[in-house]
Amino acid sequence: MQERNILPAGQKVKRRSLNRKNCRCRFKCFQNIKEDDQQKIFRQYWALSYGGQRDYIKQNVKKETKAKRTTTSSSRRKYSYQYYLDNEHGKQRVCKTFFLDTLNIGEKTVSYTFSRNDGVRCQDQRGKKPGSRSRVISQEDRNTVREHIESFPTVQSHYCRKTTTRKYLEKHLSIRKMYELYREKCKSDDREPVKYWLYDHVYFTEYNIGFHRPKKDICTFCDAYEKMTQEEKEVRKNEHHKHLERKQQARDQKRKDKDRTLKEENILVVNFDLQKVLITPKMFVSDAYYSRKLSTYNFTTYDLSSRNVQCFVWNETEAKCGSCEISTCLYIHNKEVGEKDEIIYYSDSCTGQQRNLQFCIMCLLIVSNFPIKVIIHNYFERGHSQMEGDSVHATIENSTKRLEMYSPNDWLLAIKNAKQTSPKYAVREKHHTMILDFKECASSVVANRRKDTNGDIVHWNKIPQISFFSSTTSARITGA
User: Fold this and answer.
1) What residue spans of 421-478 are helical by DSSP H?
2) Helix (H, G, I), strand (E, B) or coil at 424
3) Is the peptide bond before 371 cis (omega within 30 degrees of 0)?
4) How many Cβ atoms sit within 10 Å of the Cβ of residue 117?
5) Would you give the DSSP letter of residue 198?
6) Residue 141 and residue 192: Cα distance in Å, rounded?
7) pLDDT (average), residues 22-41
8) Which residue in 97, 146, 161, 247 has the most C-beta neighbors within 10 A?
9) Is pLDDT at 8 greater than 60 in this prediction?
10) Cα–Cα distance between 346 and 330 in angstroms, integer?
11) How far apart are CA 467 and CA 238, in angstroms?
């Protein structure tokens, strides 16, 4: 593979190298100039400065007035050139092709050098002439680009925020769209914009900001495993195999529970998830991209037997999206399901929302105070949490793709009308007065939150299933 130089614009060009060819000319260049001598000449030439290279050409090329004419018609060619290179016997005349290939230069380089016949050593004038192409990029221009990039409000990844610092812009933006907005701003400020390549370079080298936040976690372990060498894969092969086994076990169990709930009325199987953040305002005008965005949250429950959907919607001025908020939504949902022998939950493995002590307290309160005998909460393997509720979020996103949202109430109406067929999505607006403090309840009720009855440490992020029983008002952790 040939080495390449990378230009500031990101364009790649071949690095200069010696081009040794047998020219088969009358000067016998290939025989008179050995490869070692040719390599030495090439290295010495490119070690010189710009002016030194021009002096070398003048010293080794003779420009003479054309002495012989072969045609009667007039010719634009008035001069001829004689080319010389050094070998162990001194200067040796060579042909033009061999000379240019040895130095890896073009014919225009020679002609331009001799066009500067004022006797003064040539100076490199690149980047010194007036004009936009040679304009030196100042630190002020770079700072202007940085200020513009930072003027766009960013949000954290909903699913990956605990494992990455990467932030995201709203999905309607792109690097090209941002650059066009930057040019408009420069025009309004009577300022000359930098080229696109520089804007792109600053964005991707100085900022950890992406577009189109992922709808679901990318499985970091599977992704890393695919990029490992064969030796590394062999070391972690067993671990990866168990990871895939747990993924399949969770899916197989959900399939069995779905079959059960279709046959038995007293069993309810529900999966739930929090949709990615819905932003307000959502408009397609330039000024809206710079405005501070208000986050709206949509927590969705999906009944696998009836396919009924409930959407609990609130904005960040009312509440956050932590464990108490999620637990409150399910507490309200469970109050209305009536008498059930068993409720089975399926969710992703987000520790901050539903894989924690606060959520367990909520489930214990449900089996203690409502006619529900058992609650079983199953967690999908991290990075593999595809479920039926995802189709609800996809429907909402598709139906609102071209709609503008001016307030959180617009999202409420849009979610209600997102599905065209029956049953429609049931939308419930949640206010801060509805939020129950399960953290305070956990602190006052639970003294031991780290060890089980056997004295073993409970690793919350590794729990695949938790069961809650009304008969004993206790919880049992399975397979941790």
Assistant:
1) 438-445
2) coil
3) no
4) 9
5) H
6) 9
7) 88
8) 247
9) no
10) 12
11) 29
Residue 3: its pLDDT value, please?
41
Over residues 203-212, the mean pLDDT reads: 83
Q: Rounded to an integer, what distance in angstroms lies between the CA atom of residue 354 and that of residue 356?
A: 6
Least confident of 50-54, 208-212, 271-275, 279-283: 208-212
Among 375, 389, 200, residue whose Cα is nearest residue 310: 389
The Cα 386–Cα 430 span in angstroms is: 26
Average pLDDT over residues 215-242: 83
Instruction: Please write the tens of the pLDDT for every residue from 373-392.
Output: 999 999 999 888 888 888 89
pLDDT tens by residue, 404-448: 898 999 999 999 999 988 888 999 999 999 999 998 888 887 777
Q: Where are the domains of the chain?
A: 4-67+75-115, 137-210, 246-478
pLDDT grade, residue 222 (50/70/90)? confident
Helix, strand, or coil (residue 9): coil
- State the amino acid at position 359 in one-letter form: F
Which secondary-structure segment (H or E) carries 272?
strand 267-274
DSSP run (H or E) holding 25: none
* Separation of first and last alpha carbons in the chain: 50
CB-based contact 349:316 (threshold 8 Å): no
Asked whether 340 and 442 are in contact (CB, 8 A), the reply is no
Instruction: Give the pLDDT score at 99.
Output: 92
Other Cβ atoms within 10 Å of 273 Cβ, number: 27
How many helices, marked H, and strands, marked E, lie in the chain? Answer: 16, 17
Burial of 317 (0-12, 13-18, 19+ CB in 10 A): exposed
E strand or H helix that includes residue 265: none
Exposure b/e, 140-174, CB count within 10 A at least 16 = b: ebbebbeebbeebebbebbbbeeeeeebbbbeebe
Q: E strand or H helix at 34, and its extent?
A: none
